[in-house]
Amino acid sequence: MEKAESFFGGSGVDIMIHNAASERPITSALDVTEESLKATFDVNVFGTISLTRLLAPFMLRRGRGHFVVISSAAGKAPAPGKAVYSASKFALNGYFHTLRSELFQKGIKVTVVCPGPIKTSNGSGATASTKRSSSEKRVSSERCAELTIIAASHGLKEAWISYQPVLAVMYLVQYMPTMGYFLMDKIGGNRVEAAARKGNSYSLGLIFGKGKAA
Q1: Sign, Cα dihedral of 53, 41, 132, 138
Q2: Higher pLDDT, 52 or 210
Q3: Whole-prediction pTM value?
Q4: Would strands 15-18 and 65-70 be described as parallel, antiparallel, or unpaired?
Q5: Which residues pair with 15 in a beta bridge?
Q6: Where are the annotated coiled coils located (predicted)?
Q7: How far apart are CA 119 and CA 33, in angstroms?
Q8: Within a domain: residue 200?
Q9: The predicted structure's pLDDT at residue 4
Q10: Helices (H), the chain
């Protein structure tokens, strides 16, 4: 870490953006494998926390620093079909909000960003969403990056980035949990089935079992 710090001309690292993530195909919570569980937590949680623990002492020495953590909407509300991914993001949120509460008075800031579905590019240049239903509305990666920068530059403690209906579900679970969890209980099984058919796994029609195939 000392070598990494040396690349910044003595000023050190002021902002660390944690954007590593491992997400496996949608599967039911009971079908998760031990390998998938370990691989997801190694990347999403353990690696991120380990890097933070290495870098934080240098920030504390200078009395300033900012961790920007790309979490997920799945870390704020249940994500049927993505139990392990959701668990890893809940863990990430818990760790970094706690870290901020411990170190804020020492000059360390933390911004946790929770995006919903994002239109990303795979290695071949095709968008990942093309493998899913064409009716799924996803925020572009460019727009997500722009809003993340705005959130961090304004010192927000947490930011949510998504289209509806994901954003509405996040608000319900956060502020009206009984209703929010009731809604997710209605959707859960239907979402896993819709994903298996490559249907729209973010449609409100899932409440009525209407996840249509692409």
Answers
A1: negative
A2: 52
A3: 0.81
A4: parallel
A5: 66
A6: none
A7: 27
A8: yes
A9: 62
A10: 2-6, 34-41, 48-62, 83-103, 141-153, 166-175, 177-196
Active-site option among 85, 163, 171, 181:
85
Please say if 171 is a catalytic residue.
no
Tell me the CATH number at 67.
Answer: 3.40.50.720
pLDDT tens figures, 143-196: 999 999 999 999 999 999 999 888 998 999 999 999 989 888 888 777 767 666
Neighbours of 96 (CB within 10 A): 23
How many CA atoms lie less than 13 Å away from 150 in the CB half-sphere?
A: 9
For residue 47, what are the domain limits? 2-120+132-205
Q: Report pLDDT digits (tens) over 118-143.
A: 987 654 333 343 355 555 688 999 99
Number of structural domains, the chain?
A: 1
Residue 212 lies in a domain: no
